[in-house]
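User: Let's play a game. I give you a shape written as tokens, and you guess the letters that built it. Ready? Here's round one.
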């Protein structure tokens, strides 16, 4: 279908209209949520009645006290009593006046005059999906699209027009048919009258959440009241205790609502997928779901790269061509085919990496898994022709738009000097150079990508090489398919054991789980843990043996070239640095764990002093190691001038980190920056030594 000059992919020629009707499961979930909301309302009104009674008693008692004992302290106590009653009622009523406004500071609004093709595209799509046209259309930078709106208590009763947000990272990652499918999914949530109940439940859920958890303004009001007088401080504290009791009751009831709502939300996602399939076919939404996971990962890698060169005063001239470069690089690394420059990702694309066998259905998840959504879409089996053109064809002057969003992202970033801009060629060269430092030769099939080589003594290697004789003739013979996948198998087993351990100790509160496709009760985890521990031991022994065979093979090759001693020296250098790096990483993680309470939650004065005391003890270990690092020429070569200065300043200063009742942010920044460098440099050198040995081995083989 073509609307004037607008590229608009054709929809399915036919589909079963029943797929876009709410299912019996959806209706059942709506009833469950409504039932739990009605129960919540009943509890709420009971608490309100109790609060009114409390206010009447406090008001009466306060007035009587003031009237019959007219003194200053009785006046203050009487006012405090009256205030207590009123503040408890105010807590239960404040949500009536609460407005939840979405932050738009990171967004750019576009008008129909600026983007006529986009508006025409969306207008046609809203007609197809029977959804209202958005109130406003905004662009963001990331790999996302959503419908959003400001809400309040009153929005449950009056219709609100929704805004559409389109992330340019998403546009950069999909073809125009996939773009249509993604937007159709968003409109699918609001496409039919039968879906209004689901939307209503969503709004009620949001209002309840705001009442229970969004209490900053109420807390400041109580604090201001308490600061007026010591008399009032007592009543403010008493009010807080009463409110905490009310919250405890309501939060427990809300937990039931939220659990039911999450189940409903998953059904709403399936319904929105069906709406999308009805106008775009099943395939475009499936392919986009898979690719967007990769696109988001690559988008984050792009920002990781620019964070790493921030101190070099570098920023991108245009994020999106560079995002495409990283996606192509990712596709090459993982042997994914490209179509029109986009990686083609399927459900089994990473099956060789993901070897987990334990599956826990997350009852608190608001979205179904990608696997479940794909299975649902395939069962719908709605076919439509796919337009493989880039989604950028819908946008007018796309490059200027990309540059505008890029500048918006960096408008709040402060550089030490006027930043230089990396164009696509400069970025590609620098990124590939950096990526190659961390990329091992593909002939090793990822065998060493995420682990160190097993530690053997030189005598063990030479003895095994002698015993082995000429039985192995090539690396490919050693690294057959079962052997090459051993690190992933072991990783999957360890992951499964962690999940089962969480089920056993109740930190993952589930009643059932799946293992190898069969369903089990939580009590069965004990038996499966025993089974997996035995499997893990067998696979770890296989891995160690594979390392030994490989070392022995390359040692024999080195002997032929008269370089056996060189190989052993390189290997032992790797093991020495790897052990140092592991020890440093442990100190780094331990120190971060000590500091974590400072950044999450409220820290009491005594706790703050205890944290700093523990940090000081850690510094007695860490500072000498940093000093040693700065005298190690091999490690110093991995430091930039700025990084070396950070470490030197840290060593030369005795930081306090906390004084009076305040944390000293600049001193904490010095500590955090130093810790990050302290951990990363030995890890970088360890990887470089491993890469050097592995490449050298290939040269002599």
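Assistant: Ready! My guess for every position:
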């Amino acid at each position: 279908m073509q609307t004037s000059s607008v590229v608009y992919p054709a929809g399915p020629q036919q589909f079963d209209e029943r797929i876009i009707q709410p299912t019996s499961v959806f209706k059942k979930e709506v009833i469950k949520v409504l039932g739990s909301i009605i129960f919540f309302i009943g509890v709420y009104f009971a608490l309100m009645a109790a609060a009114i009674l409390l206010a009447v008693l406090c008001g009466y008692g306060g007035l009587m006290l003031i009237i019959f004992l007219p003194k200053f302290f009785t006046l203050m106590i009487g006012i405090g009593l009256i205030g207590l009653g009123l503040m408890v009622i105010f807590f239960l009523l404040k949500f009536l006046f609460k407005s939840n406004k979405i932050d738009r500071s990171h967004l750019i609004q576009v008008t129909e005059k600026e983007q006529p093709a986009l508006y025409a595209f969306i207008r046609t799509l809203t007609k197809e999906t029977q959804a209202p046209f958005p109130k406003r259309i905004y662009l963001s930078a990331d790999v996302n699209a959503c419908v959003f709106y400001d809400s309040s208590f009153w929005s449950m009763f009056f219709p609100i027009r929704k805004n559409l947000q389109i992330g340019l990272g998403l546009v950069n990652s999909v073809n125009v048919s996939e773009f249509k499918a993604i937007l159709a999914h968003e409109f699918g949530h609001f496409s039919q009258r039968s879906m209004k109940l689901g939307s209503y439940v969503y709004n009620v859920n949001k209002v309840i959440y705001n009442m229970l958890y969004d209490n900053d303004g109420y807390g400041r009001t109580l604090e201001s009241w308490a600061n007026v007088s010591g008399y009032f401080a007592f009543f403010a504290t008493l009010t807080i205790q009463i409110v905490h009791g009310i919250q405890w009751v309501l939060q427990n009831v809300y937990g039931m609502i939220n659990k039911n709502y999450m189940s409903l939300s998953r059904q709403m996602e399936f319904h929105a997928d069906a709406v999308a399939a009805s106008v775009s076919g099943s395939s475009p939404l499936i392919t986009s779901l898979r690719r967007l996971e990769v696109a988001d990962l690559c988008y984050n890698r792009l920002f990781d790269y620019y964070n790493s060169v921030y101190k070099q005063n570098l920023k991108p001239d245009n994020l999106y061509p560079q995002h495409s470069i990283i996606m192509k690089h990712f596709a090459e690394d993982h042997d994914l085919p490209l179509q029109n420059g986009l990686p083609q990702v399927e459900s089994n694309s990473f099956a060789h990496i993901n070897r987990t066998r334990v599956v826990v259905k997350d009852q608190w998840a608001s979205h179904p898994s990608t696997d479940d959504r794909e299975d649902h879409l395939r069962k719908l089996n709605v076919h439509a022709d796919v337009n493989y053109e880039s989604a950028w064809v819908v946008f007018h002057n796309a490059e200027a738009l990309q540059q505008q969003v890029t500048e918006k992202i960096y408008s709040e970033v402060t550089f030490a000097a006027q930043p230089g801009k990396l164009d696509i060629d400069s970025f590609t060269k620098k990124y590939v150079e950096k990526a190659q430092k961390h990329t091992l030769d593909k002939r090793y099939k990822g065998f060493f990508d995420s682990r160190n080589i097993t530690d053997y003594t030189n005598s063990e290697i030479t003895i095994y090489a002698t015993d082995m004789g000429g039985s192995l003739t090539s690396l490919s013979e050693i690294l057959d398919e079962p052997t090459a996948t051993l690190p992933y198998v072991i990783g999957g087993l360890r992951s499964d054991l962690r999940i089962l351990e969480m089920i056993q100790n109740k930190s993952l509160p589930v009643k059932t789980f799946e293992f190898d496709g069969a369903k089990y009760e939580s009590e069965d985890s004990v038996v499966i843990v025993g089974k997996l521990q035995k499997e893990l031991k067998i696979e770890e022994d296989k891995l160690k043996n594979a390392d030994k065979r490989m070392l022995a093979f390359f040692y024999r090759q080195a002997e032929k070239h008269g370089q056996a001693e060189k190989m052993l020296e390189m290997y032992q250098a790797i093991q020495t640095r790897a052990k140092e790096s592991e020890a440093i990483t442990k100190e780094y993680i331990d120190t971060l764990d000590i500091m974590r309470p400072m950044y999450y939650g409220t820290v009491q004065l005594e706790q703050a002093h205890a944290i700093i005391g523990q940090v000081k003890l850690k510094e007695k270990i860490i500072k000498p190691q940093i000093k040693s690092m700065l005298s190690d020429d091999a490690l110093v070569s991995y430091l930039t001038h700025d990084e070396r200065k950070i470490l030197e300043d840290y060593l030369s200063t005795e930081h306090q980190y906390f004084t009076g009742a305040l944390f000293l942010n600049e001193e904490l920044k010095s500590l955090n920056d130093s810790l990050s460098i302290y951990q990363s440099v030995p890890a970088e050198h360890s990887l470089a030594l491993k890469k050097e040995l592995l490449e050298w081995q290939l040269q002599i083989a």
